[in-house]
Design the sequence.
C-alpha cells in the first residue's frame, strides 16, 4: 500500500529513553516469556547451564520492567530471586532473607540506592553481602564514583543477559 504525504499518520515516535531499551532487552537478546523453549523448559538459560545453582539474589528497583527482566534472566540461569520496589522494602527483605548478592538501582524513591548501600554496609548482619549498583547512569565517571562510595560492583542498564550473568558470576565467585 502506498500513502500520499497527506495520508501518512502524524504520530511521531517517542524520544529514546534508556529504560525503554532495558525493558526491550529480552526481546532484542532473544530472551522472553513469550518464546517457549528458549530456556530449555524454563529452568535454565539457552545454553542449558545452571550458573546460579540456587544462589539468592535480591533485586531492588522501582521500575517494574527492570524487576521483571532481572527476575527472568536470573531465574533462567538458576538463581533464586527476591524483588523489592524501593529502598525500604529492599532493606527489610535483605534482613529477612540474607541474600548472597544484592543488585540495587541508584535512583529510587525515598531511600536512594547510595543510602541503601550505606545502610547495608553498616548493618552487622548485612555488611558482608556484596551490593552491586544497577543503573542507567553509565557515563561521566558514574562507575568510579559508585565504586568509590562503597558498591562492590557496577552493572549498567541496559545490558546483554549473558554479560549481566557473567558479571554477577564474577562477583559471587571472585576466584574462578
Sequence:
Amino acid at each position: 500500500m502506498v500513502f500520499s504525504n497527506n495520508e501518512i499518520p502524524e504520530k511521531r515516535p517517542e524520544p529514546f529513553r534508556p529504560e525503554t531499551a532495558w525493558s526491550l532487552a529480552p526481546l532484542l537478546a532473544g530472551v522472553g516469556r513469550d518464546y517457549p523453549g528458549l530456556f530449555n523448559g524454563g529452568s535454565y538459560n539457552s545454553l542449558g547451564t545452571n550458573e546460579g545453582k540456587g544462589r539468592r539474589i535480591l533485586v531492588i528497583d522501582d521500575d517494574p520492567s527492570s524487576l521483571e527482566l532481572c527476575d527472568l534472566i536470573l531465574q533462567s540461569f538458576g538463581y533464586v530471586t527476591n524483588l523489592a520496589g524501593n529502598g525500604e522494602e529492599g532493606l527489610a527483605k535483605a534482613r529477612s532473607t540474607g541474600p548472597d548478592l544484592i543488585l540495587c538501582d541508584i535512583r529510587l524513591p525515598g531511600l536512594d540506592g547510595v543510602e541503601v548501600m550505606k545502610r547495608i554496609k553498616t548493618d552487622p548482619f548485612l555488611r558482608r553481602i556484596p551490593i552491586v549498583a544497577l543503573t542507567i547512569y553509565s557515563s561521566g565517571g558514574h562507575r568510579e564514583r559508585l565504586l568509590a562510595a562503597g558498591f562492590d560492583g557496577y552493572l549498567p542498564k541496559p545490558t546483554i543477559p549473558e554479560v549481566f550473568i557473567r558479571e554477577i558470576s564474577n562477583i559471587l565467585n571472585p576466584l574462578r
